[in-house]
Design a protein that fits this description.
alpha/beta; TIM Barrel; 8-stranded parallel barrel; 6-stranded mixed β-sheet; 36% helix; binds beta-D-glucopyranuronic acid; Hex-like_dom2; GH; signal; xylan alpha-1,2-glucuronosidase activity
């Protein structure tokens, strides 16, 4: 059918109010971090003029049929109105004809789930945002505001943008009681207790933030899931969130507890004795559950499942495989959604190197998973450490869609108080050549990326201002894994704090090196998992006596009087053998390899000569010291930038940096004291002795540390 289009003037805010779309919250406390990167801080007068403000905002609409603007289009228009007015300061943007530059939204199809690709072009002075779905226009609107906010000349706009991967999901490890596992930003943002009746404005602001960086789904509950979140009362609550987020293109997903059929009633079927995925009654139970969810939430994204991992139930409890379990759920969901099955598995009974276990369990199942199953793989084979080589499963399962899971919340990188910008770490993985026909980014392109969220009830959402950058970076990289870390850092800084080059030139480099700094003072040269037990706050490389061997830092560093490191070559666990031979080769020789992974793959004597010519012990101490010195520099750099940042946020960042400075010294001193107790070596010339003895560091205990 031919469609006739016509430009109509459009009163965005009025329509928005009429259909209950929330316009962005304006911050009464504007500079407390709540507005994230969506501040749209006023441009200077010259830029406002260049932008042609006051602008007119017009949109296209279909005139055939009962066409009223979709909720998504209403949001796009409201965001532009709000954002442009904010950028233009006192020059109000108008909604109709008249003088000034026009900004047009040209997205004819009213589909919120359609093609997200958009274009932005300036033609004859007018700015046109185009795409094939309303969602494309929404993404385009946010992109335009971002560009203008960065100071881009509007006359040069010529953007073609499309997401590199279909699923760009936040995984919330939020429990229904409000506690967030590995959360360092307060309580959960989800007010399950008052839902569905009460919807917090934060839920709209959350959707805005996500949509502005292209995130299109949220798994709202912890992977260590409670079965009752599948009960009708929770489905009702979830439906309210789904309704609120739909205009923003955010689909809801649930973590599903595999044993749910034995723990909660499933409608007419009731509760079962088994959760065996091949049992017809179990299959019927999940089918009924899926139907019930889809009746309430037609665009429900699907289930995320942590099975047979760290004590969670799963198909192996019944002698079945991961594929049996995943496929059973996939059948229940059908083509309505996706089953995301986590590959984060390891067992206390299995003596195999923990780094090898997921590959061994999953790779033989390649090709056995249903089409609507995605296997979600952490960036590295152990567990979100400050540095890990990419997971060997990437590239090794060509018949299976694999999704990359990264951790935005900084469980192992100093919680919320340490400044560590994670884009460089994620890029390291995305860029890694699997040696099996593509980079990790290429392997995951048909599936997507998941990020374990760092959101919480803190006013600034993420526990610290700089941690917002990691939420931002996650979305931007999932949309476009080719974006450089520098681009992302500058974009975020300019929108969040200040767009002046003098500010960006100092802060962007500080962000870019920050993750490496953390890796240096915590786990240099490829060491891993040396954090304290349970909460993972602070160093505890001396812990060797926990029941499960692979929960002990000693398991990972294998240090003794002779040397340190985990031999994962053919003479050791041969985890190296799980990589493509060309890649394994690059890590097999300590004399030539990238030393960032040195002790991950090799056990070496303390007097081994590293590539710098120094003995390993000296090299290690030097790296700790470098990490500590770099934090000192960060402290001073930031102190000098007070002219560019509002006092409240400047002080908050400065105070966090001082915590980081103290804790970096703690990591260095405690680690060195412990290694010295094993190797008996004197400190390298000029190195400062730890400020306390080992017993002091060992005696420290933090039962109240957050996030456990
Ligand atoms: C570990 C966390 C634990 C998570 C687990 C997972 O310490 O809280 O449940 O990852 O990813 O790093 O399932």
């Amino acid at each position: 059918m031919m469609r006739v289009r016509k430009l109509v003037n459009f009163v965005a805010a009025a329509c928005a109010l009429a259909i209950g779309i929330a316009v962005p919250a304006t911050g009464a406390q504007a500079e407390d971090g709540y507005d994230l990167w969506l501040r749209n801080a006023p441009l200077d007068a010259e830029q406002v003029e260049r932008l042609g403000l006051p602008a007119r905002l017009v949109r296209t609409a279909l005139v055939e049929g009962a066409q009223s603007p979709s909720p998504t289009m209403n949001v796009a228009t409201a965001e532009l109105m709000h954002g442009l007015n904010s950028l233009a300061a006192a020059h109000p943007v108008e909604r109709g004809s008249g003088p000034g530059r026009a900004i047009r939204l040209d997205c004819p199809e009213s589909r919120a789930d359609g093609d997200a690709a958009f274009t932005i072009r300036t033609v004859d002075g007018d700015i046109r945002i185009g795409g094939n779905s309303d969602l494309a226009c929404l993404y385009g609107a946010y992109a335009l505001l971002r560009e203008l906010s960065l100071g881009t000349d509007p006359d040069t706009l010529d953007i073609d943008s499309a997401p590199a991967m279909p699923l760009r999901l936040l995984n919330h490890w939020d429990n229904p009681d409000g506690h967030v596992e590995r959360g360092y930003a307060g309580r959960s943002i989800f007010d399950w207790w008052h839902l569905p009746e009460r919807l917090d404005q934060r839920m709209i602001d959350y959707a805005r933030a996500n949509a502005s960086v292209g995130i299109n789904g949220a798994v709202v509950n912890n992977v260590n899931a409670r079965a009752f979140m599948l009960e009708p009362r929770y489905i009702e609550k979830l439906a309210r969130l789904a309704d609120a987020w739909r205009p923003y293109g955010i689909r809801v997903y649930l973590s599903a507890r595999f044993s749910a059929p034995t723990e909660i009633d499933g409608g007419d079927i009731g509760r079962l004795e088994t959760a065996d995925p091949l049992d017809p009654q179990v299959r019927a139970w999940w089918q009924a559950k899926a139907d019930e969810i889809y009746a309430a939430i037609p665009d429900f994204g699907g289930f995320l499942v942590k099975a047979n991992s760290e004590g969670q139930p799963g198909p192996q409890d019944y002698g079945r495989t991961h594929a049996d379990g995943a496929n059973m759920l996939a059948q229940a969901i059908g083509d309505r959604g996706t089953v995301i099955w986590r590959a984060f598995v390891y067992s206390a009974q299995d003596e195999t190197d923990r780094a090898k276990q997921a590959y061994e369990e999953f790779v033989p199942l390649d090709g056995a998973f249903a089409d609507n199953v995605i296997v979600q793989v952490k960036n590295g084979a152990i567990d979100f450490q400050p540095r890990e080589p990419f997971h060997p499963m990437f590239g090794a399962m060509p018949q299976t869609r694999l999704m990359l899971e990264v951790q935005i919340t900084k469980e192992y990188l100093g919680f919320a108080s340490h400044l560590a910008f994670l884009a460089p770490m994620w890029r390291e993985v995305l860029d890694a050549d699997t040696g099996r026909g593509g980079s990790v980014a290429e392997v995951v392109a048909p599936a997507g990326m998941a990020g374990v969220a760092n959101t919480g009830s803190d006013r600034n959402w993420s526990g610290s201002d700089f941690d917002q950058a990691n939420w931002y970076a996650f979305g931007r990289l999932a949309w476009d894994p080719a974006l450089s870390s520098d681009t992302i850092a500058r974009e975020w800084l300019a929108q969040t704090f200040n767009r002046e080059e003098a500010f960006l030139a100092q802060t962007a480099p500080m962000m870019l090196s920050s993750r490496e700094t953390v890796a240096r003072y915590m786990t240099p040269l490829g060491l891993a998992h040396l954090m304290a037990t349970g909460h993972h706050y602070g160093p505890a490389p001396w812990v060797c006596d926990l029941d499960r061997p692979e929960w002990n830092p000693c398991y990972y560093h294998r240090a003794d009087s002779d040397g340190i490191g985990f031999d994962r070559t053919a003479t050791g666990s041969n985890a190296l053998g799980q990589y493509a031979p060309a890649i394994a080769d690059t890590w097999s020789d300590p004399a030539t390899m990238d030393e960032h992974y040195l002790l991950w793959f090799h056990h070496l004597d303390w007097d081994y000569r590293t590539q710098s010519g120094l003995p390993l012990w000296d090299e290690l101490v030097q790296r700790y010291d470098q990490g500590v010195t770099e934090v000192d520099t960060m402290v001073h750099t930031w102190d000098d930038l007070s002219a560019y940042v509002d006092p409240e946020r400047h002080r908050a960042v400065a105070e966090n940096l001082r915590i980081q400075q103290r804790e970096a010294n703690w990591w260095r001193d405690a680690s060195i004291a412990y290694w010295q107790s094993l190797n008996g070596l004197p400190l390298p010339q000029g190195a400062r002795a730890p400020s306390r003895d080992l017993e002091h560091y060992r005696s420290l205990s933090f039962p109240e540390a957050p996030g456990q």
